[in-house]
Structure formats: structure tokens, C-alpha cells
Amino acid sequence: MSYIYFFYLSLSKLIYMDSTIVKKEDLASYHFVNHEVLSDPVQIMERKYLLEESLMLGNDYKQKVRLICQTTDGIIEVAATIWAVTDTHVELKSGMDIPIKGILAVIK
Asked: How many domains does the chain divide into?
């Protein structure tokens, strides 16, 4: 596994995260948290907007995005193509579903 350190700037709020890079094929071995990982309602709306935008990029251009997610084992990062977004989950090209509540950041 690789580790990555990065800064994410969201609406003038700087967040530092230490995440493990995971292949989308290995996502099935991780358990995502069931609670909301973002506390700011504006960030929650921004995340939903970025997921919808990433859906269009994935369907129209097959472009991957990076998702930073909270699991029971810690923070992971996965690069994947988003094929569907529901009210509660994101479906990736690989067929894996990720709960939206567990997504910390969407990076295009």
C-alpha cells in the first residue's frame, strides 16, 4: 500500500489528511463508516454537487476522480470512474458502492 499526504481546500477551510491509496478492485475488503463524516452543511452540499459533476465526467468522458473516504480502518483514497449517484450511495465503474456519508472529499 502507498501513503499520500495532501491538502484539500474547500470553501476556505484547509484540511490535512493522511490517506492510504487503494485500488478500486480492493474496495470490497474495506468497511465504510455509517455516520456523516462532514459537519458543515455547505461542505455536504458541495460534496453532492462534485459527485454529480463527476458522474457527468465519468459517463461522458470516462474520466476518473479521486475519492477520499473514511473507513473503519482509517482514511483511504481511490481513483475511479463514477457511474451512478443516488441519494445515499455512489456506484463506481467496478460495480462497488460507496456510501456518500463516508466520502470526505472529491478531487477532479
From this structure: 1
